[in-house]
Amino acid sequence: MDPLSRAAAAAADAADPLADYRDRFAHEDDKIYLDGNSLGRLPVATRERLAAMAAEWGERLVGGWPDWIDAPLRTGDLIAGLIGAAPGEVVVCDSTTVNLFKLVEAALDARGGGALVTDRGNFPTDRYVLEGIAARRGLELRLFDGEPEAATLPCGSGDVVVLSLVGYRTGALADLAALQAAARDRGATLIWDLSHAAGAVPVDLRGAGAELAVGCTYKYLNAGPGAPAYLYVAGELQQTLRSPIWGWFGQREQFAMERDYDPEPDVRRFLAGTPPILGLAAVEEGVRLTAQAGVAALHAKAIELTELIVALHDEWLAPLGFELASPRDFARRGSHISLLHPLAWQITRALIERADVIPDFRGPDSVRLGVAPLYTRHVDVWDALDRLRGLVERGEPETVDATPGRVT
Amino acid sequence: MDPLSRAAAAAADAADPLADYRDRFAHEDDKIYLDGNSLGRLPVATRERLAAMAAEWGERLVGGWPDWIDAPLRTGDLIAGLIGAAPGEVVVCDSTTVNLFKLVEAALDARGGGALVTDRGNFPTDRYVLEGIAARRGLELRLFDGEPEAATLPCGSGDVVVLSLVGYRTGALADLAALQAAARDRGATLIWDLSHAAGAVPVDLRGAGAELAVGCTYKYLNAGPGAPAYLYVAGELQQTLRSPIWGWFGQREQFAMERDYDPEPDVRRFLAGTPPILGLAAVEEGVRLTAQAGVAALHAKAIELTELIVALHDEWLAPLGFELASPRDFARRGSHISLLHPLAWQITRALIERADVIPDFRGPDSVRLGVAPLYTRHVDVWDALDRLRGLVERGEPETVDATPGRVT
What we know:
2 copies of one chain form a homodimer. Chain A is α/β, with parallel strands linked by helices.
């Protein structure tokens, strides 16, 4: 059988040990969704859980709080299992942006301030958080070009470095252990953004000696638009770091209200306001599905699917002017593939509007194809790329309105 | 008819123009819920809207974002109508704690730092936020005793003052206009916490010349446990204040990602991370109900209900050792009443466990009875206080486990 045939893709799906997970997500239409790296699909269990949580609010009212109050830590423990953290090292709270702000400020407060360092290609909100802190504290913001590499990581003693484990544009997977060791050797504090990595690739924070991390839950963890994010603080650091935002959910014995601030001795000291209970329930369901499938199995399938994209690109798309922007070595990438084309914006629009394929556009010239092994099939990849080549061969992108618009 | 009879209460309910709103909330049991000032009830419309939003996530996937992205401002505009703000002056985002942190830091950045001032009895998270900022910036934290009064507000030029419009313990309503004028005259920046006020009492931020405010949505606005909070920045200040947390949802032309940070020219510059879309939908439904009923009508009924509590207290409870901790003048209080009793903790437990009445305990000696005019009836107040006096007359509180526990 031709390995690039649709029959081969269908055969791979038939042999897929994760195939049953597809039915655990809502599929309201037959669109091919290759943007789970931006917003994951709705798990059926989450739909049911949200209804149950609304009922629980209605029935238990404030009496629900004794159970709800542990949700940030309980859900964090589930995430910990996906990223190589220990129980008690992760809490779910706030947004990735706010959590990154908290950890950068905490590191600077505890260790003094050198430069703030990240790659110019890091996700915008990460750069903005650092730019803001640098401006307000009068610190140097050091942006470097290219992918982060241990040998050349431009940091020294007292610096705070923020790196995404999987880059949002190319899907490049950084070397967690080597970069962590490089930062440590140079006396810098390294904070990982796991948004595009958690649930997609194996992550071993403790094995790498990672100290701090943040991440979002609405991509591969399928927790819904704007779902609460998480943060990780290695156990041995929890007593020495403090959140810059002192809030009542970080307070020890929270309901003895007449005292000065005295933060929890553990990771809960990084909580601030009242936890979003419905959002946390959605995180719990999404993470549970990922944990049941297992990151190793998900990663193995992600490799198969992204390898198929690369092979079909080489065979069908490269001759049409596409260029692979993601690492060719599967060991060096996450679960999405970026293809460059001068008409990337129009191609994205044409795929969505005429071909029922949902990719993602990232300016100026990148079409992003994300695979979510819980629900993306080999035939989805084959069909999407077949429609893509057909569109381009027929010159359809040239007929699409080139006015840039909003694509998330 | 005896004005303190149950028949009089039933007659008042029969004449209540808001009576129909009660059926727009879920009532899964016949408990008398007097803690809507801690966590409001579930609106039926919210239950339906949450299911619809989950379906919308499942169907539209990332294609939903063009509509969802405006939710923080759109929902903020609804809240603006309840608090005397103009459209474009309120956004819904983050928690009250995080929003307060943002506004205090923004004010200090823009105007220089004097002392941070609040009353010792202010809500704990407000005090903690100020305590943290004072500690990190080396500023004085000035806590004053008693309720805030314009004549004695202890602030001067460059100070940042945080006051709750309605105090969480006694329900005392501060004089918004007088305090705002006092702060302005002394050169201080005043930030209002409207958590216990919005939806319960008329609030005219613009009329008072208020500059900054925050508030939560899960009390009288019935948006659910840990629902997103809001912040208000007067239009004329929006260009001069910046959030300390620079995030991608505060960025002008957010999806042109390759630029330096350039904040939105309006209140959206105080957004940080990705907005919680399901939470925002619940806020929208809760606020819409409040807006439909109208704050004036809600306040008029709150006065009736709290006057009934005060009258029944005087008649039945004062002889049993209770003391009214809330202002006797209805013009000086919000929508909850605090009663002091040495056995307040045991009384609270007995009411919940034996009488199907849900009040709230605030240490060390306060039973809080909140009325939510959208769903609290006069007979609910009468029945609750009747059961309360019966319990105490029979000596039941003395038989309850006095071990303090968690009550939210």
